[in-house]
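Anyone? Bumping this.
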Amino acid sequence: MGSGSAIRQWDERFNQGEHGWTGEKQEECSFDEMPQMVKAFGGWEVWKDEKGDYTLVRRGEVVGIFHEAIVEEDRVLFLLNKGMELEVSEKGVREIMTPEKAELCGMIGADGGCRKQHRYNEERGHWYAYIIAYYSEDEELIEKYDELFKQVYNRTPHHYRSHGDLIQSGIFQRDIYYDLEQYDIKPAPYEFHVPFKYLDEEGLRAYVRGFFSGDGTVGYDRNEGNW
Amino acid sequence: MIFQCIKGVSYTGLTYPNSFCRLRVYCPKGGKPRPAPLQVGLLRSKKVAKVGFPKFVPQVDIRDSRSWFWRDGVDLPAIFAPLWQLLADEKALSEARSKGLHDYLGYNGEILLSTVMPDEMIDRLKTEDYFDLIKDLRPDAAMVPDNYTYTDVPLYQSWSQTIRLVNLANDFLDLDIPLIGLIKGADPHQIRWVIEKQVEMGYVSFAMPARELHREGLLKGWLRHVRQMLGGNHAMNNELLVYGVGQKLNGETHNMCYSNLSWFLEAKKSHCYKDGVFYEIIDPEIRYEECNCPACKGLMPQEIYDMRDRESELRILVVHNILDLANSLSR
């Protein structure tokens, strides 16, 4: 199947394996196998080698090798890219969002957008612009959004000012658009969808925090006598 | 790639290539010894039957019957059936092997077997495996086995793969069905060599997997080169099919055929083709334009979207897209 760039194809086929520039090589490649089991859940096992790398094994086959893992009592979390974690527990394996990504999705669900627009010009022909944006008049919120975006995608959005004090913090990036689009967080204008499937308890809290940063409030209704 | 690796590109996640990096044999940091170079076998020659590609040969997703367009009354003369999808699904493979592809798919047109497949599968199959599969699946024509030729890995690898392709094309001459030669290479030298050898062996129908080359902006230049080679070698008796590109290419592309699965993949993303270009279904450019194709029957994309029924939308878009693409690529 392969032609063109191997690096690019590798990235596209396995988007969890996106390469990142580390500046200096930290360690020599080693092809030696590893000992020491850290956890076992059902058919899944987590092993740690002497270099500190974690190997996830299912029925004797290596599924992946990770530099970092968070080992908790009832689960192990492996950090993937684009703000995702692989959760391995008795219930099996699933991908969940980091709290930062969950909060970012909450903010976009409330006051943001994730859309593509058809464009045309003579030189380039037909093409699509992929836009991920957050809108607010509050500079503090914009700063918070930028910070989360940077943590999750390692990119800094641009700021555009149009109507009055409204600031748009936006970025044109296809891979990020498709990453967010799969969770369907913003099905249509004025609609939102909570990606429950990808949220653990901490993620849910973060999502709600992000969402209420934009829309809504919680308060006590004196007339009704309830919250 | 090795250079970057030494300089410090690290991979994390499921694909961290510590244990399965394909470039290990070239790695100066503890790789295995490099194998001896492959040799080109004694090449034979035979008059290979011409496939006679229609202008558009849709690929189908064997594992997803929603792409089996003939069930919706669309009549196209040929399809490409990807072998790798069967290999990835044991149950489907055993059923297809026992019934043959025609009965398995329920398709009466020509079934061309595509061997374009993920690299790890390419490495697993030998000539005998292909022969057994072709014997059981009974396609009307088959591609010679695929290879991988990347532009950013050591040329040793792409040349090994290119020589392997030519050797396998030589073995495939034992088959008694029309065969499709493959045009692949990491640079114009390899492309030239692989075409020359296959033409010498008697191949006249060629497919050029071009998805990545198109995306990386290499296709146009290389295609010109390929067309010159094919035209010059055989007095235009050869036929060429561009495989994996979802739109008509600009420039000198007459007498060129296309094959892709874009019509189905885009339908799954709620994209709607118009004159060979896909749009989002609610794109202002097309959303209020009535379409009178047999699938839309006068509906506007907006009305299809308003159905809010994902399955009905998909069924309409699948048929609409394939008809539009067949029409625009045939012009």
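Late reply, but here is one note on the structure posted above: The longest strand of chain B covers residues 78-82.
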